[in-house]
C-alpha cells in the first residue's frame, strides 16, 4: 500500500498552498487571485499565472454576473462538464450548443468551424452572459466578430483556447481590444477546458 | 474581420505538422507517435513528449483492446466527455462511475477520495479494459492497489493525473512497476483530462 494523501480537502489545501508559495501573485488583483490559483491548479503549472492577461475588475464583473443569474456559455462540452454546479450562486444555466443539430449546416453557411458556428445559437443568450472559450481559437475570433456585428455584450469573456494554430493570436486579439468587455485570458499556446472551467469555478462560491 | 484559419481539417493538419517539427519524436516508438502528437496538441506544449513514459508495445496493446471491444474506464467526466466516440473502432463503452450514488459512502468506507472510491465500481469491468486516469492521483494509486489485491488486469493504463499533491508520485509509481500492465504516462505535475482523452483518441481510428 502506498503512502499518499487520501483526503480531498487536504489535497486541495496543500495544492493551493504550494501554488501560492511558488507563483508570483503580486501583480494579480485581489478579485482574480483565487482564479489565478485555480487555473494553475488545473494544469499543474504555477508559471501560467505569469501569462494571465485581464481587464481591471474582471473578477468582480464575473462574480456579479453569476450572482445575478447569468448563463454560462461554453464552446466545448469538456469545459461545461468541468464546471462544478454546486459552486454556482444562482443555479446558473451551463450551455454548450456544439452538439445542436443545426451546427454542421451553420458551419457550412458561415464558412467556419463547427465550434465557431455554434456561437450563432448563443445570440439570444449573450447579453450579460459568462462566455467560456476553453477549446477553439475560431470560437474566440468569432465571438469578437459577433460583438463587432452588434450582438449584445457578455458580462465577461474567459478566453482559454489552446493550441498551435490561432490560439495565441485569438487571445492576443482579445487582450488588445476586448470591445469594452471584461476579460481574462492566457497569452500563448497554453490553455484548455480544464483551465477555463477552473476559472469559472473560482468565480463561484465556496461550499 | 480577422484573418484566421477557419477550416477544421486544415487546423488539425497544420497543428500536427508544427508539433512534428518542434518536438523530438525520435525516441517514441511507431505505435505511440500519433499518441504523442495528440497529447501535445491537447495542451499546446510539444515538450510534454519528452516527459512521456511508456512500456514497449503499449500503443499496440491499446489498439488491440479497443478493436476487441474493451470498455474505457475514466476517473473523471471531463476525460469521458473528451473521447471522440466516432473514433472508437467497436462502439466501445465509455464508463465513468464518479457520479454513482454509492460513491460517497464507499469513499468513507475505504478512507479515500471519491474519485479513488469510484474505482470500486470498476471491478467487474476491469479485465482487459482501457483505464484512463486524467484527473486524480488518488485514482492512479488506488488502481495499483487494486491490482495488488488481485483484480483482473486491464489491457492498458493511460496515467495522466495532474497537479501538485501525488500526481508526480503516482505516475512515478506506475512507471516504476506497472504490475506487467502496458502503460503510458507523463512524468511530473502536468497532465489532465484533455491529454488523457487525446491519448485515447489517438488509439482510435481516423475517420
TrEMBL record, chains A, B:
The keyword Cytoplasm does not apply. It comes from the Bacteria. Pathway: Cofactor biosynthesis; adenosylcobalamin biosynthesis. GO terms for molecular function: precorrin-8X methylmutase activity. Residues 11-203 form the Cobalamin biosynthesis precorrin-8X methylmutase CobH/CbiC domain. Gene3D superfamilies: Cobalamin biosynthesis CobH/CbiC, precorrin-8X methylmutase (3.40.50.10230). It holds the Pfam family CbiC. Keywords: Cobalamin biosynthesis, Isomerase. The keyword Chloroplast does not apply. InterPro entries: Cbl_synth_CobH/CbiC, CobH/CbiC_sf. GO terms for biological process: cobalamin biosynthetic process. Belongs to the CobH/CbiC family. This is Precorrin-8X methylmutase. It comes from Lamprobacter modestohalophilus.
Amino acid at each position: 500500500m502506498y503512502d499518499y494523501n487520501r483526503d480531498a480537502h487536504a489535497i486541495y489545501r496543500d495544492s493551493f498552498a504550494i501554488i501560492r508559495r511558488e507563483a508570483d501573485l503580486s501583480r494579480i488583483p485581489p478579485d482574480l487571485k483565487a482564479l489565478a490559483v485555480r487555473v494553475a491548479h488545473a494544469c499543474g503549472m504555477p508559471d501560467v499565472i505569469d501569462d494571465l492577461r485581464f481587464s481591471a475588475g474582471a473578477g468582480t464583473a464575473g462574480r456579479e454576473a453569476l450572482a445575478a443569474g447569468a448563463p454560462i456559455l461554453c464552446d466545448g462540452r469538456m469545459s461545461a462538464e468541468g464546471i462544478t454546479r454546486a459552486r454556482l450562486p444562482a443555479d446558473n444555466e451551463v450551455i454548450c450548443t456544439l452538439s445542436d443539430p443545426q451546427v454542421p449546416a451553420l458551419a457550412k453557411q458561415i464558412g467556419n468551424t463547427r465550434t465557431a458556428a455554434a456561437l450563432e445559437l448563443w445570440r439570444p443568450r449573450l447579453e450579460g452572459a459568462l462566455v467560456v472559450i476553453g477549446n477553439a481559437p475560431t470560437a474566440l475570433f468569432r465571438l469578437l466578430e459577433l460583438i463587432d456585428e452588434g450582438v449584445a455584450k457578455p458580462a465577461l469573456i474567459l478566453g482559454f483556447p489552446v493550441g498551435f494554430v490561432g490560439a495565441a493570436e485569438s487571445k492576443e486579439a482579445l487582450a488588445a481590444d476586448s470591445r469594452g468587455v471584461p476579460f481574462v485570458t492566457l497569452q500563448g499556446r497554453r490553455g484548455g477546458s480544464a483551465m477555463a472551467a477552473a476559472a469559472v469555478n473560482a468565480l463561484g462560491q465556496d461550499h
